[in-house]
Amino acid sequence: MRLFAQLGWYFRREWRRYLGAVALLIIIAILQLIPPKVVGVIVDGVTEHHYTAQQVWMWVGLLVIVAVVTYLLRYVWRVWLFGASYQLAVELREDFYRQLSRQHPEFYLRHRTGDLMARATNDVDRVVFAAGEGVLTLVDSLVMGCVVLVVMSTQISWQLTLLSLLPMPIMALVIKRYGDQLHQRFKLAQAAFSALNDRTQESMTSIRMIKAFGLEDRQSALFASEAADTGAKNMRVARVDARFDPTIYIAIGMANMLAIGGGSWMVVNGSLTLGQLTSFAMYLGLMIWPMLALAWMFNIVERGSAAYSRIRDMLAEMPVVKDGSQSVPEGRGNLTIAIREFRYPQTEQPTLNNVSAVLNPGQMLGICGPTGAGKSTLLSLIQRHFDVTDGDIRFHEVPLPQLKLDAWRSRLAVVNQTPFLFSDSVASNIALGKPGATQEEIEHVARLASVHEDILRLPQGYATEVGERGVMLSGGQKQRISIARALLLNAEILILDDALSAVDGRTEHQILHNLRQWGEGRTVIISAHRLSALTEASEILVMQHGHIAQRGQHEQLSRQPGWYRDMYRYQQLEAALTDAPEEAIDA
Ligand code: ADP
């Protein structure tokens, strides 16, 4: 029942709709009291022979009118009440999505996609059901139940009413217990559903790899075990679920038994007429629905409450990175990196130590070093996925945490190691950050990224659909399309995080040459494994174990003993070996 308190903000805001629906429900409850009364009157009238056929038809006419009006009112409140609950679904999903888009990579390491999707769909549906159907059944059962009770006790006999209600408190306690059990079990069932969703999502996205490694059987077995676990947990919910109705029926049976027993005794005693007892039994019949509804309401609301707490857990998570309040100063500015120390949340060892650099507009910074040296970490600090623990990164001399996050990110264009393409046309993928871009603009950046010719060779050129995640394209083509996409943003700072790894040496050289021209007055930061990508850089940072082991320009570093010179020589040798046959063919 705590769900109603948790959703109080929504009920207060939408009070008009809810109040209107509740008022109609009350009117319907009152209208429903008319038929038993009328039937009682007819029975007494007919048994005592003082009603004409015409009078009986009049009463029947009244019953028909009541039925029609009830039908219409029921329609209207449904529209009001369920309209409000569907609106709640829209808002919860919007909040949820907004929350997801505010979060940073670290959040997505902790929460898996399948789980998040389960919460955004299945759990929201449960809450919405509780806010619609749950409210309806609560109001309907309470209003209807109370009105029937009042009529039974005032119109017929309060003693008989009291007698027949004796089983109810026990029933209420039992139902409450079931409700608590249902809450716990349903939460576990939803968590199991999330895990199943994760497994499904993972299997679908890695289907190529699964097939390549012949892991179908293993994957199917894993899936089957998740499905069985979810099934078992839902079965536990169903077991509690199944106890509600029989309990109610037992309580109603006992109430009927007490009513008929006590009522017959009163008829014999002369304190009740047969018609009144008939009416009383019918009123008691009217209590069946409110009581079943009350139990059902418990069921729905406990499920909704469990689901809502899963949604709220997500909504309550604060992003690790807080938004700043200052607008980003206009124009091109220096980027000053002065990190004394950075450690990831929940990590003991610092990942970066004493990393500093100053980048003037138009300069190109190269970053290299062995895997795990901290290159991606440095780039993600510049993008403010995390904040520097000790020291800072400044733009225009303003520390990044003081800048508005969206405004800062809009100054950056980032190409990651693993480019992501949407299942849309090539042109739309390039124009992702600038939907209104003209064909000329798109082709211009595609030329800069040396992918224009490749695109023309595709079946429908720029209009070719690339398939899910760009399955139609090679790794190098995807990388270059992502570069074109970033260039179209016309951002001030371009970050290439090993974005040329799948591109051959000559194309890489061409792209870098184009970038130098494009990037006049713009800052470019390139992290690369292949050092040939860094030859043009104004400064290269060689990172090792989280600190800068060497720094300087290519010429200088390739002569200085150290990791850079060794790696450069090794890569040159490798390139000579792999390029030689191609050149022989070309010749
Ligand atoms: P590089 O890009 O040079 O290969 P990274 O910046 O990815 O290196 O990683 C540097 C170090 O930080 C590694 O030891 C890695 O395990 C650690 N690391 C990376 N991401 C996280 C994270 N989210 N939480 C904790 N440690 C991390």
From TrEMBL:
<comment type="similarity">
    <text>Belongs to the ABC transporter superfamily. Drug exporter-2 (TC 3.A.1.117) family.</text>
</comment>
<dbReference type="InterPro" id="IPR039421">
    <property type="entry name" value="Type_1_exporter"/>
</dbReference>
<dbReference type="InterPro" id="IPR027417">
    <property type="entry name" value="P-loop_NTPase"/>
</dbReference>
<feature type="transmembrane region" description="Helical">
    <location>
        <begin position="156"/>
        <end position="175"/>
    </location>
</feature>
<dbReference type="Pfam" id="PF00005">
    <property type="entry name" value="ABC_tran"/>
</dbReference>
<keyword id="KW-0472">Membrane</keyword>
<keyword id="KW-0813">Transport</keyword>
<dbReference type="InterPro" id="IPR011527">
    <property type="entry name" value="ABC1_TM_dom"/>
</dbReference>
<keyword id="KW-0812">Transmembrane</keyword>
<feature type="domain" description="ABC transmembrane type-1">
    <location>
        <begin position="19"/>
        <end position="303"/>
    </location>
</feature>
<dbReference type="GO" id="GO:0005524">
    <property type="term" value="F:ATP binding"/>
</dbReference>
<feature type="transmembrane region" description="Helical">
    <location>
        <begin position="56"/>
        <end position="77"/>
    </location>
</feature>
<keyword id="KW-1133">Transmembrane helix</keyword>
<dbReference type="InterPro" id="IPR003593">
    <property type="entry name" value="AAA+_ATPase"/>
</dbReference>
<keyword id="KW-0547">Nucleotide-binding</keyword>
<feature type="transmembrane region" description="Helical">
    <location>
        <begin position="248"/>
        <end position="268"/>
    </location>
</feature>
<feature type="domain" description="ABC transporter">
    <location>
        <begin position="337"/>
        <end position="570"/>
    </location>
</feature>
<dbReference type="GO" id="GO:0015421">
    <property type="term" value="F:ABC-type oligopeptide transporter activity"/>
</dbReference>
<protein>
    <recommendedName>
        <fullName>Multidrug resistance-like ATP-binding protein MdlA</fullName>
        <ecNumber>7.6.2.2</ecNumber>
    </recommendedName>
</protein>
<feature type="transmembrane region" description="Helical">
    <location>
        <begin position="280"/>
        <end position="301"/>
    </location>
</feature>
<dbReference type="Pfam" id="PF00664">
    <property type="entry name" value="ABC_membrane"/>
</dbReference>
<dbReference type="GO" id="GO:0008559">
    <property type="term" value="F:ABC-type xenobiotic transporter activity"/>
</dbReference>
<dbReference type="GO" id="GO:0005886">
    <property type="term" value="C:plasma membrane"/>
</dbReference>
<dbReference type="InterPro" id="IPR017871">
    <property type="entry name" value="ABC_transporter-like_CS"/>
</dbReference>
<dbReference type="InterPro" id="IPR003439">
    <property type="entry name" value="ABC_transporter-like_ATP-bd"/>
</dbReference>
<dbReference type="InterPro" id="IPR036640">
    <property type="entry name" value="ABC1_TM_sf"/>
</dbReference>
<keyword id="KW-1003">Cell membrane</keyword>
<keyword id="KW-0067">ATP-binding</keyword>
<feature type="transmembrane region" description="Helical">
    <location>
        <begin position="127"/>
        <end position="150"/>
    </location>
</feature>
<dbReference type="GO" id="GO:0016887">
    <property type="term" value="F:ATP hydrolysis activity"/>
</dbReference>
